[in-house]
């Protein structure tokens, strides 16, 4: 297939790796942060096995960066998130939530601190550039907020470390989980972090000059061939196994961190002020009326993910919704993330999921469904 065959327009952007992904077999795309992202390299189950057995390279240039610089950068970034950043050193990454005045989640990005007054917010699928610029207008803080020419790739899977060593040498092996490093590869300027959306060992490679997109993709694929590297896309199966959120599906502007069990990302008692502090303190003190749970759905293997929110019911009465569901070939189970009324959110509870083919019994279980301690990713 040729790139022109997709009939794309100019209002939705292409990544610097777009042509390379088409050459390497991308057959379908979706839109994320106003950009095309490859979502189909053939069989999604094979993509999953490629990820968990060897390694895959994914074009995630859609993870747009919001760059915050200036003398007040650290103060401003803390305003955006309820996570305490006071002990975040240069070179570290943190998973954060960005909340509005009501405590609702606007995004759940990775925050990278490149220098004392230099941060990147590596976005999930919502427009935080506009939010941050709007917040800055009346903040009285001296900051500059832009979207830089930065395009990430994800190299994920158990062989990703060996591929990184082949690319960058032995020194890359002491890069710790959730830390970053500025490097270059054959003169291509990069930031590398030990992060990713897979719950496997993995790295994100942030290209700092889009002109090198094609060259970088081909260089990584060529180096990775002997380790079994395959082109791929972020795996819905693996991220649900890992209990990882997909913004707009598992969380949105009306979801607060406590409903998701993300209490560790919220510190309403810290001295620093942040947007949503009063609301989140009220929510913490009152408790939540609904909670995210894991479900095992007891039916034949599902052929693909849910494309609508499925009602969760108890004795015929709706008590919540399934937000993400998939069949895990490794667990040989249909697994799902769901948001349900707190009274039904207890382990072992039996509920009904109303699927397009009718109601099916489901059981509330622990999440993540696999490797709950993240021992693979953090090893």
Description:
By secondary structure, this protein is an alpha+beta fold. It has three domains: 3-64 and 149-239, Gyrase A, domain 2; 65-146, 2-Layer Sandwich (Alpha-Beta Plaits), CATH 3.30.70; 290-379, Aminomethyltransferase beta-barrel domains (Elongation Factor Tu (Ef-tu), domain 3). It is 20% helix and 31% strand. The protein has nine helices and 21 strands. It has helices at residues 18-23, 44-53, 73-80, 128-137, 160-168, 213-224, 236-241, 277-286, 375-378; strands at 28-32, 35-40, 55-59, 65-69, 93-95, 98-99, 105-107, 110-115, 118-122, 144-146, 151-156, 180-185, 188-193, 202-207, 229-232, 290-297, 310-314, 317-328, 333-341, 350-355, 358-365. The protein has a six-stranded mixed β-sheet with strand order 12-13-14-11-3-15, sandwiched between helices. Strands 16-19-18-17-20-21 form a six-stranded antiparallel β-barrel. A five-stranded antiparallel β-sheet has the order 5-8-9-4-10, covered by helices on one side. Strand 1 and strand 2 (35-40) form a beta hairpin. The model has no long low-confidence stretch (mean pLDDT 96).
């Amino acid at each position: 297939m040729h790139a022109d065959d997709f009939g794309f327009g100019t209002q939705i952007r292409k990544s610097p790796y777009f042509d390379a992904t088409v050459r390497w077999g991308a057959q379908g795309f979706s839109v994320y942060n106003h950009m095309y992202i490859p979502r189909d390299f053939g069989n999604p189950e094979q993509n999953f096995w490629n990820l968990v057995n060897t390694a895959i390279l994914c074009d995630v240039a859609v993870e747009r960066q919001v760059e915050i610089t200036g003398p007040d950068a650290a103060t401003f970034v803390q305003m955006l998130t309820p996570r305490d950043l006071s002990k975040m050193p240069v070179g570290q990454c943190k998973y954060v939530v960005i909340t509005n005045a009501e405590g609702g989640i606007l995004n759940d990005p990775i925050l990278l601190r490149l220098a004392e007054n230099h941060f990147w917010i590596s976005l999930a699928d919502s427009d935080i550039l506009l939010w941050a610029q709007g917040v800055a207008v009346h903040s009285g803080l001296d900051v500059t907020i832009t979207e830089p020419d930065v395009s990430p790739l994800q190299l994920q899977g158990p062989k990703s470390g060996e591929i990184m060593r082949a690319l960058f040498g032995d020194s890359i092996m002491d890069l710790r989980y959730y830390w970053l490093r500025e490097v270059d590869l054959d003169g291509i300027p990069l930031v590398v972090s030990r992060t990713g959306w897979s719950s496997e060992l993995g790295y994100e490679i942030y290209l700092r000059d889009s002109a090198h997109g094609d060259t970088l993709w081909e260089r990584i694929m060529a180096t990775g061939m002997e380790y079994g590297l395959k082109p791929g896309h972020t795996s819905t199966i693996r991220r649900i196994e890992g209990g990882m959120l997909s913004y707009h599906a598992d969380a949105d502007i009306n979801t607060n961190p406590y409903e998701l069990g993300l209490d560790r990302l919220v510190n309403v008692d810290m001295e620093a002020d942040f947007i949503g502090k009063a609301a989140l303190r009220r929510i913490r003190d009152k408790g939540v009326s609904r909670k995210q749970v894991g479900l095992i759905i007891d039916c034949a293997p599902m052929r693909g993910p849910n494309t609508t929110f499925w009602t969760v019911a108890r004795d015929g009465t709706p008590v919540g919704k399934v937000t993400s569901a998939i069949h895990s070939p490794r667990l040989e189970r249909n697994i799902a993330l769901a948001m349900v009324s707190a009274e039904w959110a207890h382990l072992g509870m039996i509920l009904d999921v109303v699927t397009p083919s009718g109601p099916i019994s489901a059981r509330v279980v622990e999440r993540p469904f696999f490797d709950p301690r993240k021992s693979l990713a953090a090893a």
